[in-house]
Protein 1
Amino acid sequence: MRALLYLFIFIRSEPENPVHKEIISVILDWLNKDIKFDFRTIRTLVARLNKIRNDTCRNRVIAELNSFWVKTGNFNMNRVQISVEPIIYILEEIYKKLELQEFDKVRIMASSVHNYPSFILGTHYCNSEEFWKIHINYYNRVFDEGFMSKWEFLFLVEYPKMVHEKRK
């Protein structure tokens, strides 16, 4: 998840960098709603990312993935699992905007979601409803689009249920 945080930060700061499309493409080819995050699947992603040209963004994403198992014991993996489909959607939307060279939209979209991985892991300061209103919905306020609207229920209903759930 932290790998996505850094990917979104790099995209926000430099949306024109072509390596972002390459990284997103590799992640989308690897990620699916039924994925089980384990050492083998993470190693597969790292191997695929290593084939992309050397770049600061790629290297940071790989570094975060390499430390994934050190950190996962502290996180609610059920919360991570229900967030996979929204993450896929986010990556697809950013990719589409990059293809269209809508860099202002890419920048704002990446800005609105860059803390989402931290939120999923429970390390962000906002509650679910605040996170939706302040962060995710920021893009919609700027561009009057329905970005992430399909997953609003996660923030208003599902994530709040998980606040007191024991971490596995």
Protein 2
Amino acid sequence: MNGTQGLVFANPVPEIKRLAREMDMEGKVCVLSFGVGSQMADVNQAIEDCMQAGHWLLLQNYHLAEEPNTSFFYLLKHIIYSRWSDDGNNQEQTEDTGRSLVTRSCYSSHSRPAVKLSNSFRLWITTKADGNRIMPGLLVQHGLRVTCELTVNFPSLLGKAYKSSAFLMSAKAASGEQLIQRFNRVIPLALIHAILVQQSYYGRHGFVNNHFWTIADVASAVEIFQSLSVWTNDMEAVPKLITNVYSDHCLDLRDTQIVESVVKNLLGVKHSAEGNHGAAMLLNKLSNNIKETNDLQKTLDSIDNNSAQTYCLPEENEEMHIALKSKIFFKEMVQVTGAPELLLSYATSANLLNGVSKDVLDSLQAHLEACPMLPDISVDQIMPMDEFFAQEIKMYKNLINTIKNDMQTLAKAVVGKITLTPDMVNILDAISADQVPAAWLKNTFVTCKSLDAWLAMLPDKSMYVLQCYNRCPDVLSLNMLMRPDRVFHVVTQSYASKHFKDLTDVSLELQVMPYDFKTEAKPSVGLYVNGLVLKNAFWDKRTCVLSEATSCEGGVHQFPVVWLKPISTVSRETAANKDLYMCPIYSSSDPEYIKDSLLLFCIPLPTKTSPLLCAQRRVSLALVQHVL
């Protein structure tokens, strides 16, 4: 961790000290952090001292602890079992009702440490939910409170980024007016770094890949900003150059667009109502607050909202991040408690298969038996659209045959007739986790996580493409195709072939139809398509533009029919529209599959707000995961 980053997790010390003041224990709180080698003896001694003195002890970062020794667990047992009354221990317990039988397994008195436990003693332990070391089972079973807390460290992170940027700029303020001038000069660069680093804490729910921005990136951004501000007043090139500093870490186009939108939104904002959106909204709030307080720390403390929207993330990302961490924490609790009913509950809630049996393979085989018999059709067709559907039928037929052969092989392996090759073992592992094997996705895109749901749609999809070959529907469902990305190119090829034009002279214009649009026939030119959903935004029915998302389950909204209209490039009027957002289309709405390799196409959509805000909110289109 470097000087530009704050604590990755919420610091519990202020909250515990506040509670200590309320309980008349101020000055009696001891804090000890794990992470130093050969410190278990110091930890044990600190526990014994606080037990005798009646102080509170906070042990932080247990996931960084070395291998605990037996004396550490003896102390934990002593703390827990010493709270029982002698009368309660002498009571006979012969049934499973009442108090847990686990708590009755108190060890013999001769093994207890000769340390008296004060009534005012309290022990607090914090750990990372997905760390290398799980919480001791005794504490999970008998702890007063076991929770998974959110990260609330953004003000600390921004403060460190601001101080680093100000130091690199060698900016020293003597008066209140100079403080405000320095703040307005430094805070945009500090916010860029803080927002990007904070979003990277969310892992796959923030960026496609993990990025490690450090103080070196801050130094490069400061150098670019100072060098250009000295020699020229034209600062339009600054956002582009600073974007390159941070986007050079990105290997995915989506991550690059997010970085670019944050940088341009912060460095291009004018302190007015027009810039009051996205990251610029937070910048304006901080700039106004520093004028009132003339104090940096009070300005940072004014960031009272610690939700993901504060640093330009959709609410869905925060909810899914919390669910992921809570699932990890719940699994650790199951491991340390050893309760079989909790393990069964966890497996059921996650929809995971503990193993592959013959019954599981038979249930998957039933989906394949429902698939129609696809004919052998030549892919050498005259019209590009006919050739496209012929290729779809051929790919579906090959996919079904491949799956059937693999399932037959696995069925033999389950009963012990054959051994599996490494490739078949990978397929077996994917089926065990209810995931679509990568070997079955070589010629198509993944559309959903669940293998059962994916195979359940296969009969309908294969029948649909066969019907499309016989007669192209008025509205083509993109989610029913193996290669929906080819549709956009086939439309232009069909237009060029019909009108005897060069393919380079034809471009594609996309027009979103009204929600109540009823198709009575095919369009005069081009194709109607549907089967799309809109993520992290809402399509305004009245104005037909993108607007901020309203409350909706999963943050997903049905998108209307789109007209793919090919036109001649020569006759097309090219007018730059700054309010158009190039919205990407992905094969799935699941955040795990939002990446370049699953990008189908990008379509321009009008928006009420700035396209930069849409990029920050991760607005995108995806294929519907069910049959329309």
Protein 3
Amino acid sequence: EDHFGGSQRATVLSAAAGSATSIATGNSNAGLSAWYLSMYLHKEAHGRLGFFGYDLQDQCGAANVFSYQSDEGLPVELRGP
């Protein structure tokens, strides 16, 4: 705990929140969003920097949860024969 400055605890709690949300909703994207939201809430409340590259802000990545990858074809996969 002292080594990682709370980021290890935040990861465990966020994994639990994400798993519970995805099971409750049946939607994996909702679980991923809950994971990232929990990480952000922990960081804003009492997060500190860790070390060895395991910094809490590096684990927060909600910006690309619902992003569209333009290199994977059309949005609804309408492709010709």
